[in-house]
């Protein structure tokens, strides 16, 4: 069960960073362990002006970010994390003029790594634009900080 105080932070975590705000990411929902965010279609996010297809880097960023949100949801709180590995399989071009949604679920969580599956789509998650498999490393220093193992000089 997600802590209500943490759940209230998800919209800010979805769009509060400079790059996610600039890209227009919006929190959509949290259903069980599945987080959903949206990026509204905008002309300046198009990668190919002739077709109107959204830039591939936008799709990758969307999947990476929703994956991080899924890890925080599994942790039931915010902790520093970083993308350790991200594989994105593009299945088709996003449709011109359509918002893009992304969902992710953290399916395994260890003391140091969160494993995530994510997918991007317009309407139907079973017809994805792209799917991702990712691993995120967690801040697992156990309260130790830099220099913890250094010996004091005599």
Can you summarize this structure?
This protein has 154 residues and is of the alpha+beta class.
Which terms summarize this structure?
Thiol Ester Dehydrase, Chain A, globular, 36% strand, alpha+beta, two-stranded antiparallel sheet, 154 residues, six-stranded antiparallel beta sheet
Any chance you could write out the topology, listing elements then pairs?
Layout: H1 4-15, H2 18-23, E1 26-31, E2 34-39, E3 46-48, E4 53-54, H3 56-75, E5 81-90, E6 100-109, E7 113-121, E8 130-138
Antiparallel strand pairs: 1-2, 2-6, 3-4, 5-8, 6-7, 7-8
Helix pairs in contact: 1-3
Rg, rounded, reads: 17 Å
SSE sequence, one letter per element: HHEEEEHEEEE
Report the uncertain regions. none
Termini separation comes to 50 Å
CATH homology superfamily: Hotdog Thioesterase
- Arithmetic mean pLDDT: 89
Q: Which CATH C-level class is it?
A: Alpha Beta
Structural class: alpha+beta
Shape: globular
CATH architecture descriptor: Roll
Strands, total number: 8
Work out the count of structural domains.
1
Please state how the strands of the largest beta sheet are arranged side by side.
Answer: 1-2-6-7-8-5
């Amino acid at each position: 069960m997600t802590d209500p105080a943490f759940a209230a932070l998800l919209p800010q975590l979805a769009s509060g960073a400079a790059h996610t705000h600039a890209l227009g990411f919006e929190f959509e929902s949290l259903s069980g362990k599945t987080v959903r965010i949206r990026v509204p279609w905008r002309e300046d996010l198009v990668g190919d002006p002739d077709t109107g297809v959204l830039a591939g880097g936008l799709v990758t960023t969307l999947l990476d970010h929703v994956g991080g949100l899924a890890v925080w949801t599994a942790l039931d709180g915010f902790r520093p994390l970083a993308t350790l590995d991200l594989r994105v399989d593009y299945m088709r071009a996003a449709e011109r003029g359509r918002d893009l949604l992304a969902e992710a679920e953290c399916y395994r969580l260890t003391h140091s790594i969160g494993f995530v599956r994510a997918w991007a789509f317009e309407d139907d998650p079973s017809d994805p634009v792209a799917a991702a498999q990712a691993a995120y490393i967690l801040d697992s220093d156990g309260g130790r900080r830099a220099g913890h193992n250094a010996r004091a000089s005599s």
